[in-house]
Amino acid sequence: MASQTRSILSLLTIPLLLSLLAASAQAGSIAVYWGQNGNEGTLADTCATGNYKYVMLAFLTTFGNGQTPVLNLAGHCDPSSGTCTGLTSDIQSCQSKGIKVILSLGGASGSYQLTSTSDAQSVADYLWNNYLGGSSSSRPLGSAVLDGIDFDIESGSSNYYGDLAKSLKQYSSQVYLTAAPQCPYPDSYLGPALQTGLFDYVWVQFYNNAPCQYSSGDITNLVNSWNTWTSSFQVTNIFLGIPASTDAAGSGYIPPNDLTSKVLPAIQGSSKYGGIMLWNRYYDLENNYSAQVKGSV
User: Which residues form the GH18 domain (predicted)?
Assistant: First the structure.
């Protein structure tokens, strides 16, 4: 009888374990951009919240076309005077918590453009030696080794970003590549690069684009766009990129209750669902957005 009871319990346990594994597989994370507002707190404080799994340092605003690369972290530090090397301990503190710290290239403003395959290789060399696993006498963030490179390309042309991705992965397959395309598919600037299949995480910006974003309780356009993105190219993890407050973007803000009750249930069934991306830490700090939704992501 005892043996039979154990067998029955085992049979009952299997579906429970399978359901728990399925739930775990669909559990999402939160990514956030940090660096564009001196009032958003330190990088170490950002990571200490426990709300984020990925933090993008925004932005390397100048690179390519023979230009000297420029890091712009707003009011946090001045790379030209060497004060950004003080972020070394913050970066290492984040990484000790299992948080990936990633340098974001581009942004909505800046001077960046890749003009050839060799130009892309030169930028990759610079990134490897100054921010990743290489060596240089002038590392802007000091000795800290970042986990990867984010492509937030919003101007110029789409040419050669795929070459940049390939060059970075050739240095090390352990370099995380992420991207932040806008939600109209395919993205004007990152479309060809994303087709390489080399990107580990893609946080699509579902805001400032009416045809593919949430609007006044209507999730139809957003879900249709989400389905297009998740079915159109090879990537394991796609994140829902959204503003962290009404002030963070011109449109596309999703109230926390609508995110948790309407939007997330509609997209979490995708095997490519990775979580959400928030723009940005300053607005999240103001609105307490990530803390309100973390349990449902």
Answer: 28-297
User: To the nearest 10°, the Cα dihedral for 211, 215, 218, 224?
Assistant: 30
Element (H, E) at 95: helix 88-96
Answer yes or no: are the C-beta atoms of 69 and 116 closer than 8 Å. Answer: no
Domain ranges for the chain, please list them: 28-296
**pLDDT for the residue numbered 26:** 58
CATH number of 28-296: 3.20.20.80
- Closest to 283 in 3D by CA, of 39, 87, 112, 54: 39
Choice among 90, 147, 154, 200 that is catalytic:
154
pTM beyond 0.85: the answer is: yes
115-150 burial: b if 16+ Cβ within 10 Å, else e: eeeebbbbbbebbbbbbbeeeeeebbbeebbbbbbb
Q: Is 286 a catalytic residue?
A: no
